[in-house]
């Protein structure tokens, strides 16, 4: 054992080595703290329901039944009433579900349904692609997919697309095609919930003109005046 000779430089307590060691320790501490902070478990962001935008204001009203009282000729009045109802019937909201092929149409432009779907045996889609796969019990605002518990396509004998209003009128009044008596027809138009969807279509779809109540009143007045059809 030899004591440090006088030639060996005395180690300075706070030398350059100490400085780097301390710096290293601080670094390590910062890294550990940083990792602890980053890896500390915290709740994952949950999806939240998006508030539905307020329903579009119904600026586009149907004319009240009293507006037609001044048409003296009963037949002419009846036709005029049905023409007013035609603003709803020939609206894309109704027509999209009453196509003349097996494929529904979409949007105000009534383009063919994308993806390709077909009515299937019951109007509810093919077994491999049911309407209810995408169309649920109500409109889904986030995805823009419209919905109703009864969502399915009107039978082919109730096709409206490509027909004149007069032809649709004759067909509605023919129980062999509509499957309905006049009373049932009125009830269906005025009260049916699937028909009612057309006034609450969700997304940025244009609702059918007026309200279902106004529409029902016009259909009732049309039937009361004899249910005449436009030529
Ligand atoms: C793979 C998903 C999917 C399936 C299956 C599906 N749809 Fe759709 N459908 C949509 C989407 C998405 C829209 C909205 C498109 C838009 O408005 O841009 C839509 C819109 C519609 C519309 C248009 C509504 C309107 O007036 O704008 C009708 C009608 C419709 N579907 C009927 C049906 C019927 C009937 C079936 C079954 C035979 C069906 N769909 C199956 C996804 C689907
Ligand atoms: C989502 C699809 C869908 C929409 C939208 C729709 N319908 Fe229909 N409609 C049907 C189906 C399906 C039937 C067959 C009867 C049934 O199963 O209730 C039908 C039948 C009818 C009938 C029976 C008589 C006939 O000859 O067509 C009338 C009337 C009718 N719809 C009126 C309307 C009116 C008016 C609107 C719009 C305000 C409308 N529908 C919108 C699916 C639709």
Characterize the structure shown:
The protein has helices at residues 16-39, 74-89, 92-95, 131-134, 165-173, 175-178, 182-191, 193-196, 212-224, and strands spanning 105-106, 111-112, 125-126, 129-130. With 231 residues, it is mainly alpha-helical. It has a domain at 65-224. Strands 1-2 form a two-stranded antiparallel ribbon. Strands 3-4 form a two-stranded antiparallel sheet. The longest helix is centred in the N-terminal third of the chain and has 24 residues, at 16-39. It is elongated and about 125 Å long. The relative contact order is 0.15. The model has no long low-confidence stretch (mean pLDDT 91). Bound molecules: heme C (HEC) (2 copies). One heme C (HEC) is lined by residues 88-89, 93-94, 97-98, 123, 151-155, 158, 171-172, 177-178, 180, 185, 188-189, 194-195, 197-198, 208.
Largest sheet: 2 strands, antiparallel
Order of helices and strands: HHHEEEEHHHHHH
| Strand element count | 4
Please estimate the helix content. Answer: 25-40%
User: In what order do the strands lie side by side in the largest sheet?
Assistant: 1-2
CA-CA gap between termini: 126 Å
Count of runs of 4 or more consecutive helical residues? 9
CA gyration radius, whole angstroms = 35 Å
Mean pLDDT score, rounded? 91
Shape: elongated
* Poorly predicted residue ranges: none
β-strand percent reads: under 5%
């Amino acid at each position: 054992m030899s004591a440090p000779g006088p030639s060996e430089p005395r180690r300075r307590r706070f030398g350059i080595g100490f400085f780097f060691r301390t710096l290293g320790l601080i670094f390590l501490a910062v890294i550990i703290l940083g990792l602890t902070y980053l890896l500390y478990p915290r709740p994952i962001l949950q999806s939240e329901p998006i508030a539905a935008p307020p329903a579009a204001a119904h600026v586009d009203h149907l004319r009240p039944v009293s507006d037609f009282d001044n048409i003296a000729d009963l037949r002419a009045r009846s036709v005029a009433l049905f023409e007013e109802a035609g603003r709803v019937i020939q609206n894309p909201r109704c027509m999209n579900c009453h196509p003349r092929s097996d494929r529904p149409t979409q949007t105000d432009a009534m383009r063919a349904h994308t993806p390709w779907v077909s009515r299937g045996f019951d109007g509810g889609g093919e077994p491999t692609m049911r309407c209810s796969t995408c169309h649920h019990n109500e409109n889904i605002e986030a995805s823009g997919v419209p919905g109703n518990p009864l969502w399915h396509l009107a039978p082919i004998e109730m096709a409206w697309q490509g027909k004149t209003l007069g032809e649709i009128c004759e067909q509605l009044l023919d129980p062999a095609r509509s499957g309905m008596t006049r009373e049932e027809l009125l009830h269906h138009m005025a009260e049916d919930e699937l028909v009612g969807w057309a006034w609450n279509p969700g997304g940025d779809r244009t609702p059918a003109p007026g309200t279902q109540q106004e529409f029902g009143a016009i259909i009732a007045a049309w039937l009361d005046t004899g249910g005449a059809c436009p030529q």
